[in-house]
Amino acid sequence: MFLAAVLFLCSFFFPWLGNVPVIFFGVIIVLLFIDIWILYRQPKGIFARRNTPERLSNGDDNEIGIYIESFYNFKVEIGIIDEIPHQFQKRDVWFKTNLEPRQHKLLNYILKPTKRGEYEFGAVRVYVRSAISLIQRRYNFEQPQALPVYPSFLQMRKYELMAISNHLNEIGIKKIRRLGHSMEFEQIKNYVPGDDFRTVNWKATARHSSLMVNNYTEEKSQQVYCVIDKSRVMKMPFEGLSLLDYAINASLVLSSVALIKQDKAGLITISDKKGATIAADRRPTQLNKIMEVLYKEKTRYMETNMELLYTTVRNTIKQRSLLLFFTNFESLSALERQLPFLKRIAKFHLLIVVFFENTELKKLSNADASDVEGIYIKTVAEKLIYEKKMIVKELNRHGIKSILTTPQNLTVNTINRYLQIKARQQI
């Protein structure tokens, strides 16, 4: 069109151009009508559909697919806009592709949510061009969808499969040497070199005329509770996820592994008010029950009521259990406020306090200081890191076990400690 305007302008100064501008403009108009006719003669030339899972996994890569099919008898150029949920703050989910006559394709892309809740998708909009490419025809496929974002069930499945096949060490889980053996009998088997002579079953040996030994297995039906702090200290973000979300994901994975190991998994959430409480059980529905509760949990911007936690634990858990308390301490003074209640809980249960390293402080402490301000910042960072280590020593001094971990290693370190305690029969 711009070239046609230039030709019309030039025809005033160059009469020899004659009707060339008119002919050129006429050709454009003819091509435009041809383009409109071939794109719009079919009422439904394109079909598109968004393929999504039933739910999204928080903090994980979730695959979304767009199925596109052409009913045109000629090759078309396709542009696709998918209206993804506003939580992602992305307006550039745009795909370009070409479709041959009667061809269909599946286009995949990845979404990584960082918050739990409802995520609403909008329409799928498709723009079609022919080979002439003077106009685009838009197709709107209204496909409103509300998908729930649950705690990381993809991570849970990965660890679950590893636990079933006893390959947890492949993803960082340590193999723990068992000290002694439990008294939970499993079977009688033939003796092989390396078996403990103390487990020889003399009656079975006499019957079979070969050396037989008793085989014992890990004790089962022990109670494992994940206690999650929902107060303001768990709101700190790390790589898009809050510490609360890391704790929730780790609790879900640990509960899954505990159920596979024939233990009972339970849950308690706490802040300034009493949160959800799920009694420990190992029924097949227990994991779904825990997931449904964790899906709705949110951070409260108040201090943790430790006295309420103590009374909740005493009223809910009647037998000695393993309690993993997911919280965070930034200073010794913060620990001292909660220590009396932690000591009282540790009298009745095996308590493990799980809190987090501040990776940003570690970066500051490792950075080179070039001026007085840099030296000051580096000194303060090292002091705060040292306080974290002192918190671990203070807890150990009072007989309370602890895990100081980075958020990304939380799940692995928590499962390691659980398997270590189970192997050593400390519950």
UniProtKB/TrEMBL annotation:
Signal peptide start and end residues: none
Entries under Pfam families matching the protein: DUF58
Protein name (record): DUF58 domain-containing protein
Boundaries of every DUF58 domain copy: 188-352
Keyword entries, A-Z: Membrane, Transmembrane, Transmembrane helix
TM region positions: 23-40
Protein source organism: Mucilaginibacter galii
Superkingdom assignment: Bacteria
Keyword Membrane assigned: yes
